[in-house]
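REVIEWER CHECKLIST
Item 1: Sequence provided? yes
Item 2: Single chain? yes
Item 3: Sequence as submitted:
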Amino acid sequence: MAKEFKISTLRLKELEQELQYLKTTREKEVAEQIKEARSFGDLSENSEYDEAKNEQAKLYGRIAEVENILSHAVIIDETEETSGRIGIGCTIKVLDLETEEEELYAIVGSQEANPMECRISDDSPFGRALLGHMVGETVEVEAPIGVLKYKILAVEK
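Item 4: Structure as written out by the authors:
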């Protein structure tokens, strides 16, 4: 069975727009690069041609990747009531019990995850550990540096 990709409707639209751009504008640009590089002569020693073909391979790889994501996408119902439980689409505030620092995270699908922006995937160890828990509970997360403990302070949909 193919892997399902949990994404929001906003991310779905972004991916559809990206696919449209890749298949139209970007594909024409790469084809033009290849055409121009061919005009330089001998293809066996033509670095511009090699680079253009590499760019074409990357383009087709990305197109295949986006098409795969779209064909196996599961839209997250962001309006669904979670009765205070952590789920995809929730924003949570946790207290790191070791450092006593409060941290704010959004739990998202793997295609939208960006740890630098505190957007944590539901597939990550941290995300998996938090799913289903409620305000006031303490959660233990297995990490390479050991077990981390967090207290859930707030859950918002």
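Item 5: Key structural point noted by reviewer: The first strand starts at residue 5 and ends at 7.
Item 6: Recommendation: ____
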